[in-house]
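User: I'm writing a tutorial on reading structure tokens. Could you give me a worked example: one chain, its sequence, then its tokens, then a sentence or two explaining what the tokens reveal?
Assistant: Sure. Here is the example chain.
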Amino acid sequence: MAELPDIVQRYQAAHDRRDTDVALSAFAADAVVQDDGHTYRGLEAIRDWLSRASVQFTYSRTLTDVAAVGANTWLVRNRLEGDFPGGVVDLNYQFVVQAGLITQLDIAP
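And here are its predicted structure tokens:
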């Protein structure tokens, strides 16, 4: 597995703890998140997404793979298990990091 940037590790750990403020601090002011068919632009929209994502379902996350796919891009595969429909899902998280912050996060099966 490739080594994840510290900022991505910080984001994932904060998101696992449901710590919205710390998770949000990992993003650049103009960051974009794409998840479940929706696009969230900027910190206010990302804060709203993080707040809802942290309480909608209870789940655990297991990191299953990491690959560097470009100079500033990492593909992270996580397995989520919880009380959401289906109970188990493997998701790809593609992170773009610039100047030490996440500028884009795309989440897809």
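What the tokens reveal: The chain has a mean pLDDT of 95. Strands lie at 27-35, 38-41, 59-70, 73-82, 88-98, 101-108.
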